[in-house]
Give the backbone structure.
Amino acid sequence: MAVIDAHDGMGQLAGIQGMQLAIDKAKKYGVGMVSVRNSNHFGIAGYYSMMAAKQGLMGVSMTNAEALVVPTYAREPMFGTNPIAVTIPADPHPFHMDFATSVMTCGKMEVYAKIGHELQPGMLVDETGTTCLDPNVFLRIRDNKSNPAYTEKTRGGIMPMGGEGMLFGGHKGYGLALLVDIMCAVMSHGAVSKGVRVTKDKEKCCHFFAAIDYSLFGDKEETNRRLSEYLQSMRDAEPAEGQEPRLCPRRQGSGRREGRPGARRRHQPRNVCRDREVLR
């Protein structure tokens, strides 16, 4: 295990260094875990977990972010979108998931606001903690939070994965977001989400990386075969009536249905970036 202090450097450089160190330790000891403090936005979490998979290891990557996500039954933002990424080698494609622990990413909120698309109930709460369907309310909350002239306490924000309350598991997304902050920030003695991007020129976010040589569990080739067969069984599962072929981790962001040539693709508006990230 190790801790890296990025000294407010580029998040991408700190991320590559952190995961590479975890990979080196996993190759030597079987498991490598590295946390990083005082960093900046590192881009796509799945890039780093994929680094480990390309070297025959299981990879895990997490990062905290600016607090814009509200815990279950609260109205004060305490977490970032705090993504988790896990990649495991398999054929013809690795198991690869990369998702925010919030019900929606900040970037997607911006897209919805730009095209005038309403949110679903339970995705966003306003300053009173009341569910809100207007994504522009989120932009206002974020702008006020970053405005030095705004002296009120920041309230309102995106809900955790599962949405508002506990009915659809919002408390589970809350727990996952909390886990990310613990692994990234508490373990590195860095800033939790509430302390990220509180000053204009320093982000102070934290990351966590792990690499695991899963041959410790048994023969690696046999494990790869079993995982590959299992993932294929997911792709082959009978679809619900009127639905397209199933997706499994790695395929949603690929732009096509693996094993289903000619499957219909959904076209997005020209002015909207295609943001169908893996399982996000």
